[in-house]
Amino acid sequence: xxxxxxxxxxxxxxxxxxxxxxxxxxxxxxxxxxSMNRIGMVLLIVTLLPIALSFPVGWILQTFLxxxxxxxxxxxVQKVLSFALTQLIAxxxxxCVGNTGTPHTIRQNGAPSQLPAKTTAKWVLIGFGxxxxxxxxxxxFFLFLQAIFQFEMNTDATAALVSSSNWLDQFLTFLLTAVxxxxxxxxxxxxxxxxxxxxxxxxxxxxxSSVCFGLAHGNxxxxxxxxAMGFFAGYLYLRSHSIFPxxxxxxxxNLVGACQGLLLSGVDLDxxxxxxxxxxxxxxxxxxxxxxxIALVCxxxxxxxxxxFIVELIRNRSQFRLQEEEPEFQLSRGEKAAGVLTSPVxxxxxxxxxxxxxxxAV
Length: 362
What we know:
Shape: globular
Order of helices and strands: HHHHHHHHHHHH
Strand content: under 5%
Helix content: over 70%
Structural class: mainly alpha
């Protein structure tokens, strides 16, 4: 009998290379349109959701709390709820919409700053000073317009920053204005909106997020200096790769505003202007002195910050390039501008903001 031939299988089978899978090619223009619509939706949520919720909340307050609370206590509750609708409901929802399914997340914003402390302090000073300088310029500009054309614009848009003499109102206004607002707003506008727009270029993201931040304030008094603050906060964010430096800049500005509001709450302007007496002046002297000191300090910082900014523009112009890495999508300036101006959701947001500005101005 012939001997049988035995064939042994190899211990390890050779690997068959898997077929190559190519990622789908994404059109930069289509991605830009999606990003702009996403940003527009985030802004609409922050703008319209608090307004929509204020109607049922107001009805509940008037129906159930007004009969059993004093007018002052009810005013405190209304102010707290108005802040809460934005900071505890609208902004968290907007953050979910802005970050879901994107390369950027809220956790990435917690990275430590890559800027030296000295450089951070310098740019916080520049941002603080230039923001106040823009505020002064446009305040005089609107006063000039009113004087030339003989009309009066509404100046009550920032009344929420001034608290009453109630200590609870003062504490809550300070907490919500100086502490929670800088944190949540920076997470939204720098950590979400700027981070999304950064996929198309740093300067594009910086300008877009600054304009959006200014418009989101919804009134002519805050719009321009808020856009200036947004510019410097975004610049700090892009250079430091961290949310903490822009939060510190935002906190410093809101802290000054909150302190001014607390001091104004101790001044009865109606009595002071009506009586025009030395006694009324002396009674309000501590608060008036504090307001004057803060105003002078802010003026000095505005001049110093603006001068430093001009010096940086002349001596260190190269650091304003901001293009440390290639953007994810390459588009021309015209294509980026077209993507912003033709975004349906951004157009709706711009229309809503324009309507709010006109309503609050008259």
